[in-house]
Amino acid sequence: MVLLLLLGLLTVCAATPRDLSGKMFTFPQETNTAHVRLTTSRQDLRAVTVCFRSLTELQRDHSFFSLATPSAANDFLIYKTAADDGFHMNARNNFKFFGGQNYKLNTWVSICSTWDAAYGVMQLWIDGKPSSRIFVSSGSNINGPIIIVLGQDQDNHGGGFNAKQSFVGMMSDVHMWDYVVSPHEIQNYAHQFVGFTPGNVLNWRELEFQTVGRVLIEDEQWSIT
C-alpha cells in the first residue's frame, strides 16, 4: 500500500491538455524510470518534425525524444551521443550519425529534426542551423499505436529504459508536426520569434502528458546575456 501511494505521488496525469507556456520539465537525476509520456490522437504519420529546447551538462549518451510503435522501438528518435557534437537520428528503426553540430553544454539549445516517408530524408537543426540532408528510411509511414517519451530511450514499446541513456537536465517548448516544417519557421522557432505555427501533433501550449517518476514542472529559467 505504501509503495502504491508513493507511485501515485510520483506520477502526475494531465486528464486534459495543459498550457505549459513559461514552464519547463526538469529531469534532476539519472534513473531508468523518470520520463514524460506524451499523448496524441495522430496514429499515422507520413512525415515528422519535432522541435524542443533543452539544457544539460551530460557528456554521456542520452535520449531526448523517443517515439516507438509495436513494430519499431526507434520509429523516431533524437539521441545525443557521448562523441562531441554527435547525434544518432532514427526513423523507422534505421539510424544515421549527424556530427559537427556545435552543440553546447549548460546552455539552452534549440533542437529540431525533420523526416518524411516519401523521400526518406532526415535533417537536424541546432539553434536554427541545418545539418546536411541525409537519407535514413523511406517507403512506409509511422503507424500506431504510438508511444512518445521524453527523457528515456524506448528499447521496446513503452519501456526497456536504461539509466545510462536517460536525460538529466531541463526541457521546454516541445512541438511536433505531421509534416516537414519550413526552414523559415524552424529558424523562427529557434530564435523565439512569434512567426512559427504550433505543432499539430504535440503543442506545448495544449500538451496532454503524464510525468512518471521524479520529473518536475517548473518555471522556465533562461540565460541572460
> If you average the pLDDT, what whole number results?
90
Largest beta sheet: what is the strand line-up?
1-17-3-15-6-7-8-9
Number-wise, the strands total: 18
The assigned structural class equals mainly beta
Count every helix, treating DSSP H or I runs of 4 or more residues as helices. Answer: 2
Q: Biggest sheet: strands, sense, closure?
A: 8 strands, antiparallel
Proportion of helical residues: under 10%
Task: Provide key terms for this protein.
225 residues; mainly beta; eight-stranded antiparallel β-sheet; disordered N terminus
Give a written overview of the molecule.
There is one protein chain. By secondary structure, this protein is mainly beta. The protein contains 2 helices and 18 strands. The chain has helices at residues 2-10, 183-190; strands spanning 12-13, 23-27, 35-38, 44-45, 47-55, 62-69, 72-80, 87-91, 94-98, 109-116, 121-126, 129-130, 134-135, 142-143, 147-150, 169-177, 209-212, 216-219. The strands form 3 sheets. It has an 8-stranded antiparallel β-sheet, covered by helices on one side. Strands 2, 5, 10, 11, 12, 13, 16 and 18 form an 8-stranded antiparallel β-sheet that branches. Strands 4-14 form a two-stranded antiparallel ribbon. β6 and β7 form a beta hairpin. The longest helix has 9 residues, at 2-10. The N and C termini lie far apart (49 Å). The model is unreliable at 1-11 (pLDDT under 50).
